[in-house]
Design brief:
alpha/beta; 5 strands; 5-stranded parallel β-sheet; 9 helices; 14% strand; Rossmann fold; binds adenosine-5'-diphosphate; single chain
Length: 192
């Protein structure tokens, strides 16, 4: 079983994905974290991905697909929480094909909704805390644009499949966590 966390940069997907993974006993898969690790390790993947990440652009789909295939191919007893993937229509379609191959399905897609002015405020704060090199104002603006152009259409894509669950992403971390866990837990039980 797979749960997908969708939402703009700064929506809190990473934090909520970690909490949800713990709650469900599933494995948290963040393509952003995997890419940052590859860059830090200086692997071939990291060298290829770095310039795209620093510009706030999407890393080419085939690099991402290889990374995700490796993770899902390894199996997981409790399923997976996908955070930051899929991010465009092509990735969503290749994920669908991959899930068919390994006989897995999507429990639900949680869309974390946060207004844009709140996002910009949060990302600016996070840049200071985490020292991420892709959190400059220009990159952030580009990431938000890329989100709107490429990722936001997935809301309709998954909505059309009856898999979308919108969650209000404004409030305390625990409070939002309770909302996410209630919805994702219920979807997991129904889908099983
Ligand atoms: P955020 O959600 O805050 O933008 P992430 O940690 O999810 O940050 O991603 C950081 C960067 O990693 C993205 O701007 C992009 O360059 C790259 N990236 C992460 N996931 C993907 C993906 N599924 N497809 C393409 N690029 C990705």
């Amino acid at each position: 079983m797979i749960w997908i966390l969708l939402g703009p940069p700064g929506a809190g997907k990473g934090t909520q994905a970690k909490m949800l993974a713990e709650h469900l006993g599933a494995e948290h898969v963040s393509t952003g974290d995997l890419l940052r690790q590859a860059v830090a390790d200086g692997t071939e993947l990291g060298r290829k991905a770095k310039s795209f990440m620093e510009a706030g652009d999407l890393v080419p789909d085939e690099l991402i697909l290889g990374m995700v295939r490796e993770k899902l191919g390894a199996g997981s007893r409790g399923g997976w929480i996908l955070d930051g993937y899929p991010r465009n229509r092509a990735q969503a379609e290749s994920l669908g094909a991959m899930l068919g191959e390994i006989d897995q399905s999507i429990a639900c897609v949680v869309d974390l909704e946060v207004p844009e002015d709140e996002l910009v405020r949060r990302i600016a704060g996070r840049a200071a805390d985490e020292g991420r090199t892709d959190d400059t104002e220009e990159t952030v603006r580009n990431r938000l644009r890329v989100y709107r152009d490429q990722t936001q259409p997935l809301i309709d894509y998954y909505g059309g499949q009856g898999l979308l669950k919108a969650v209000d992403g404004v409030g305390g971390i625990e409070e939002i966590g309770d909302r996410v866990q209630a919805i994702a837990g219920a979807a997991g039980r129904t889908a099983q």
